[in-house]
Design goal:
alpha+beta; 6 helices; disordered N terminus
Length: 377
């Protein structure tokens, strides 16, 4: 596996993109913020592959008037558009967006021809309040029974304030389906975040596996939830067009009893829906999907995982359900790494490692991606 250091320690809140590729071909393994899967013979070459050296000083936050946070023109125009897989097998997509002033339409119009939307699906909307902040209207709409390997166009919004986007569905579930995943974690909204995100946009990634810590709203005074809105607009150039698979990190907990906020993960769970029911999970914080030749399991580092807890029981059953004949790649996402030689967050993942490492070995997990430590190893 080729490696490149990129990021900074968490006290500096710098962003990073985990840069590794695992391309199983008879050619040299190569990398650019992506993990490419195809099923032949694995060849891994290690070594330094970048001259990048991170700065010692902290990265500054982008200002609220930065162009990457720009609000779309028009009254109540949909913003913060993001999509994720809407079922277990990749034939559904959940489209989410925010209307800032009033509820507006929950309907998504879609089709396979640009400008021609022969289908529609109705969604739901919600709001939440966090301390002195009230969110816009957050919409979630799942469109189902899509065809594999197809480009779909979709339209959101009401009269005079519509926006149009597109996405590709993944190839069918098959051991020979090649696919390219981008790996991003702890992105935040600093100037380094912008460089990292811009770097990813230039790649050929088809879906992002996001390993936790999204907006970092909780590091601002009084847990400034407006920073959830700016972050949603910041990442929209990718999230509106390709699926991001979400993992919750410690900065999503936002448990702030001093502010009267005692519901963990409240903003995150309102804003980012995942298809947890389709994998028999009882919580959106741990779930699984299948995509192309990969079976992907998302775990929660900050939910109970001791013996006989819901997450423990679910993972025990889920690992036994993996069918290597259909999905030979078994990938696990979590936020807190089990192995870490950095001083920051050293051994924070140790209790989860003790609980689950034996299962990972038993079921021959291929790759684990984690975030939390703002360095790559």
């Amino acid at each position: 596996m080729r490696r490149s250091t990129m990021g900074a320690n968490k006290s500096q809140r710098k962003s990073y993109a985990m840069e590794s590729v695992y391309k199983t071909t008879t050619q040299r393994t190569w990398f650019l913020a992506l993990a490419v899967l195809s099923m032949n013979i694995a060849v891994c070459n290690g070594g330094v592959t970048s001259t990048y050296k991170r700065k010692l000083e902290a990265a500054g936050d982008m200002t609220m008037d930065s162009d990457v946070f720009r609000v779309p023109d028009g009254y109540n125009t949909p913003q913060q558009v993001h999509i994720t897989q809407g079922d277990h097998e990749g034939r559904a997509v959940t489209i989410s967006w925010v209307t800032p002033s009033e509820r507006g339409s929950d309907t998504v119009f879609y089709g396979i021809k640009n400008g021609s939307y022969e289908y529609s699906a109705d969604g739901v909307s919600t709001q939440y309040r966090f301390y002195n902040y009230t969110s816009g209207f957050i919409h979630h709409c799942t469109i189902k029974n899509l065809q594999y390997g197809t480009k779909y166009y979709y339209k959101l919004g009401g009269e005079g304030s519509t926006r149009e986007f597109w996405f590709f569905t993944p190839p069918k579930i098959d051991p020979d389906s090649a696919y390219t995943f981008g790996i991003i974690g702890d992105l935040g909204q600093t100037y380094d975040s912008n460089r990292t995100f811009g770097h990813y946009l230039k790649t050929m990634g088809q879906t992002v596996l996001y390993v936790g810590d999204l907006s970092y709203a909780d590091v601002y005074p009084l847990d400034y939830n407006v920073r959830w809105d700016t972050w949603g607009r910041f990442i929209e150039p990718s999230t509106a067009y390709q699926t991001w698979i979400w993992t919750a990190g410690n900065h999503e907990i936002e448990f702030s009893p001093e502010l009267g906020e005692t519901q963990p993960f409240k903003p995150y769970l309102h804003r980012y829906h995942v298809p947890y029911h389709s994998s028999n999970s009882t919580s959106p914080l741990w779930y699984s999907i299948k995509r192309a030749s990969a079976h992907i399991i998302v775990l929660s580092s900050y939910s109970a995982y001791g013996k006989y807890t819901p997450q423990w029981r679910w993972l025990q059953d889920e690992l036994a359900r993996v069918d290597r004949k259909r999905t030979p790649w078994l990938i696990i996402l979590m936020h807190s790494p089990w192995y870490n030689s950095n001083a920051y967050h050293y051994m924070e993942g140790e209790s989860m490692r003790v609980q689950f490492e034996g299962w990972f070995l038993q079921y021959r997990v291929d790759i684990v991606f984690a975030g939390h430590v703002h360095a790559y190893e």
